[in-house]
Amino acid sequence: MPLTHHRASDYSYPIREIVDIANLVSPHISLPIRWENIGDPVSRGHKMPEWMLDLICKTLPEATGYCPTRGVEKTREFLANQHNREPGPTIQAKDILFFNGLGDAIASLMTVLSPNVRMILPEPGYPSYSTLEALRCEHRSIHYELLASNDWQVDLDDLENKLKNHPEIRLLLLLQPSNPLGTLMSLKTMQGLAELARKYSLIVISDEIYREHVFEPEEFVSWQAVSEDLPSILLKGISKDLPWPGARCGWMEFINCQHSEELTELQKVLEKKKMLEVCATTLPQLVIPKLFSDPRLLPWYEESNRFYARRQKLVQDVFLSVPGVQVIQAQAAFYTSVLIPSIPLCDLIHPPFTPELNLVLANTWKTASSDTRFCLWLLIQTGICLVPLSSFGGRLQGFRMTVLQKDEALFELLLNDLKSSLKQAQLLKAA
Ligand SMILES: Cc1ncc(COP(=O)(O)O)c(C=O)c1O
Predict the structure, then answer these.
(1) Tens digits of per-residue pLDDT, 192-202?
(2) CB of 85 within 8 A of CB of 224?
């Protein structure tokens, strides 16, 4: 009798699984690994500004204890006030619940939902959702599509068809901005989603973790702006807002509980679950009001976003001359997705490397998708570690890279190495 309900292989988080593979490969290649897989600015040379560090250090002495289960009251009040400055339904401090990072919030939500109700997810999308949804329901996750022909907006007809065919869908997940694509939903799309949410009585979960990283002239539209009286949860956190993902701090904002007994109950269940875990991390909660009300924060966001936008543009420019690839124009976040519709090397039954490497990779290669094989080949040729695009779900083939590398020369070298490898791979395909 197995001890666990699921097997380890049922848990899939490709953004970090590739790290294990890269570490296995590393002793066999004479190249340093370039970690372009994880959205962590700190790992790509970004330093926390002195003023932020100073505020955190000064707060530490008062942050060594537990905090209340639902979160630090003053911080919840502060965040409720921030929320209420934006258009849409207002909330109170009681409508906010803290977690140890948004990853914890997602896992907690997926744990408490009944297996009889389904959450429909965007495809491609952040893999934690699809993995946890599939584990929770013992069925493949259900997805709606983003349309390449319409600026990666939600295919509302596809979504409505799925809602008609699956009355068990009770929750709709939005990723605004999208990870992996870095694209944004327009106001029109959001209004269309609101109509469907109303028509099919859905609870909307809007993951807005990249909300502060939107590039000019684009504007971020929060679900809050269109939600009216629809019961919804906004997911927010500091992992991407601040160069401090290790703080592990995220929270849920429950909106329109007064219109939904279901949402009220869901909030209570999540609060009770958090109580069993005592509480979330205290230090970041105590620092949030200080950091978020500091006049230096906005200019820092603006500077960071200009940096990410410049990097995105550079990727576009460099890959323009590479045949067979298409770079998705990101409007937000710090990733670039590169589509390679016809992937070279994908048909090889056995890995095409040295005998030792082939042995190390034999199992991984056997079941790997075409773009995973391409990413493995790239890793071995160049030491560059990327995430295959197919691992975010859907039919797209290619890779997602970060545009975080702080050092200009290293970033240019990275792009040039990628460009030559892509060209080399096309030649291999042609041969
Ligand atoms: C869309 C999305 N949601 C949630 C998370 C998890 O964030 P956290 O670091 O707060 O757990 C991530 C992390 O990359 C993400 O991309």
Answers:
(1) 999 999 999 99
(2) no
Which DSSP letter does residue 153 get? E
Cα of 347 to ligand 1 centre, how many Å?
34
For residue 216, give both structure tokens: 């000019």
Statement to judge: residues 207 and 267 lie in one domain? yes
* Containing structural domain, residue 310: 8-46+298-430
**CATH number of the structural domain spanning residue 177:** 3.40.640.10
Domain limit, last residue, from 292, 307, 328: 292
For residue 106, the ligand 1 atom closest to its alpha carbon is 4
> In terms of domains, do 350 and 203 share one?
no
Rounded to the nearest angstrom, the distance between the alpha carbon of 142 and the centre of ligand 1 is 20
Residue 364 domain-assigned? yes
Which residues, 6+ apart, have CB-to-CB distance to 423 below 8 Å? 322, 323
Residue 2 belongs to a domain: no
Nearest atom of ligand 1 to the alpha carbon of 125: 1
Q: Are residues 281 and 136 in the same domain?
A: yes
- Which pLDDT tens digit goes with each residue over 107-119? 999 999 999 999 9
pLDDT in tens, 103-157: 999 999 999 999 999 999 999 999 999 999 999 988 889 999 999 999 999 999 9
Tokens encoding 248: 């592990």
CB-ligand 1 contact for 101 (6 Å cutoff): yes
126 lines ligand 1 (CB under 6 A): yes
Q: Which atom of ligand 1 is nearest to the CA of 238?
A: 10
pTM of the model: 0.94
**Which numbered atom of ligand 1 lies nearest the CA of 126?**
1
Q: 102 CA to middle of ligand 1, Å?
A: 6
Query: Which residue's C-alpha comes closest to atom 11 of ligand 1?
Result: 103
165 in the same domain as 32: no
Per-residue b or e along 102-123, where b marks 16 or more CB atoms closer than 10 Å to that residue's CB:
bbbbbebbbeebeeeebbbbbb
Tell me whether residue 53 is in a domain.
no
Quote the strand ranges of 86-231, DSSP E.
Answer: 96-99, 118-123, 142-147, 153-154, 169-175, 203-207
